[in-house]
């Protein structure tokens, strides 16, 4: 008789998300909006639900208020089920008086809460990746190989491999070596024959490196033992996984589908724009494995004399006489006449302004929430509740790579113009 396993998922979201600043200026990384109507945390949570894993903790410590609100309003299972999605924020205790020091330290600090559920298997996930995975296959590989730890890996080309932790495996799929971001000769030594994982000879030659996705399945008791071995080990990739390889059965599970690490501004921007292509690499229109988020009771978008090309328009928008190309337009966005928006992620708004509020803004010379008349926005990220004045040009005309101009209401990262949440860009501003 097949043994039944009790699986609990932990989504790591405790990092400061500094590479996603200023999107993480007022929120934690898992709470960053994506694809018009979702949050980053919705991706791993949805993968869990679609994989019949309904005991889920989300670990966080920075700017957690909006994430708490989103989780609380979105994921409510039946009272006849033991399913939950809960926030575990960093907390001071007599045993752990400090904040999370890394991915492994975060899990170490919350073990008392996890232990209460008497789980035998822990699925550890990242909060800033875009992919769709059936974790049941991941878990099946873990159980079939009688692994203590299983690491999910993606086959990579040489050019991309040096930015990730790489694994070497033997003919059975057992991990024999792990190196964090190797370069040069050290990188070449990490080549693997990926035909053993089912890739064709041609694909194996093109993608001979196995990059760790930063997601793991642990036998719970083995994880406790590993984390107790050395209290200075704070990171899974740098310390815990290499130590596990020496003493335990660590297996690799190959995931050969779309996966994007969207921990940087350029990666976040690219992942959003890819969703607007005719055949995106990440398909939101999947009836079998949908992405869940908070249900909002918004009117359909109202679009008047507007040209829209290869774009996503979310619910509740009002768009007048605009041109929009290859862009993602979020909830409740308001775009006025004569605007041109291209290669842009416009996150929309958390609320509608009343007529009285808009009149008051006009009298005080403040742009109302949304994009004002005649604005031109190209290759940008406009965060929620931003006010873009009339005749603004947010196009990075000087091709600046990075800049901070908080007073003028914008930043530039990776040559992408970013207007933070609640910021105001005055009429006629040129970037």
Structure overview:
The chain has 431 residues and is an alpha/beta fold. It has two domains: 7-274, Alpha-Beta Complex (Spore Coat Polysaccharide Biosynthesis Protein SpsA, Chain A); 302-425, Hexapeptide repeat proteins (UDP N-Acetylglucosamine Acyltransferase, domain 1, 3 Solenoid), CATH 2.160.10. The chain has helices spanning 42-50, 65-74, 103-115, 135-144, 158-161, 184-188, 201-206, 220-229, 236-247, 265-274, 355-364; strands at 7-12, 33-34, 38-39, 55-60, 84-89, 121-126, 129-131, 149-156, 165-169, 175-180, 209-219, 250-254, 259-261, 302-304, 307-309, 312-313, 318-320, 323-325, 328-329, 334-335, 340-346, 370-371, 376-382, 387-388, 393-394, 403-405, 410-413, 416-419, 424-425. The longest helix is centred in the first third of the chain and has 13 residues, at 103-115. The radius of gyration is 23 Å and the shape is globular. The termini are far apart.
């Amino acid at each position: 008789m097949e043994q039944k396993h009790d699986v609990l998922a932990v989504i790591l979201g405790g990092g400061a998300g500094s590479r996603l600043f200023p999107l993480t200026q007022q929120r934690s990384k898992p709470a960053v909006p994506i694809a018009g109507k979702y949050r980053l945390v919705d991706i791993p949570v949805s993968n869990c639900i679609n994989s019949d894993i309904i005991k889920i903790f989300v670990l966080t410590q920075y700017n957690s208020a909006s994430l708490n609100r989103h989780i609380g309003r979105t994921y409510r299972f039946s009272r006849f089920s033991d399913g939950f999605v809960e926030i575990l924020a960093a907390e001071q205790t007599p045993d752990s008086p400090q904040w999370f020091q890394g991915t492994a330290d975060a899990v170490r600090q919350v073990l008392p809460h996890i232990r209460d559920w008497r789980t035998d298997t822990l699925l550890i996930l990242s909060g800033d990746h875009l992919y769709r995975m059936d974790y049941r296959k991941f878990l099946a590989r873990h159980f079939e190989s009688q692994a203590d730890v299983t690491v999910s890996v993606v086959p990579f080309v040489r050019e991309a491999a040096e930015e990730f932790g790489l694994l070497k495996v033997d003919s059975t799929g057992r991990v024999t070596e792990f190196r964090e971001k190797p370069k040069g000769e050290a990188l070449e030594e990490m080549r693997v024959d990926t035909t053993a994982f089912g890739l064709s000879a041609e694909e194996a030659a093109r993608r001979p490196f196995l990059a760790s996705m930063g997601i793991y399945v642990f036998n719970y008791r083995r994880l406790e033992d590993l984390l107790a071995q050395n209290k200075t080990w704070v990171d899974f990739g740098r310390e815990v996984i290499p130590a596990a390889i020496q003493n335990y059965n660590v297996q690799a599970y190959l995931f050969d589908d779309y996966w994007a690490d969207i921990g940087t501004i350029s990666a976040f921007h690219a992942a959003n724009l890819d969703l607007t292509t005719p055949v995106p690499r990440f398909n939101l229109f999947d009836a079998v494995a949908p992405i869940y988020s908070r249900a909002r009771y918004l009117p359909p978008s109202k679009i008047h004399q507007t040209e829209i090309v290869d774009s996503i328009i979310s619910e509740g928008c009002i768009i007048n006489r605009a041109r929009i190309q290859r862009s993602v337009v979020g909830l409740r966005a308001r775009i006025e006449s004569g605007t041109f928006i291209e290669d842009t992620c416009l996150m929309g708004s958390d609320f509608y302004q009343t007529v009285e509020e808009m009149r008051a803004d006009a009298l005080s010379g403040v742009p109302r929430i949304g994009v004002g008349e005649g604005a031109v926005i190209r290759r940008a990220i406009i965060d929620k509740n931003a006010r873009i004045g009339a005749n603004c040009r947010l196009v990075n005309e000087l091709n600046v790579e990075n800049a901070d101009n908080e007073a003028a209401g914008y930043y530039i990262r990776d040559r992408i113009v970013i207007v933070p949440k609640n910021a105001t860009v005055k009429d006629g501003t040129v970037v």
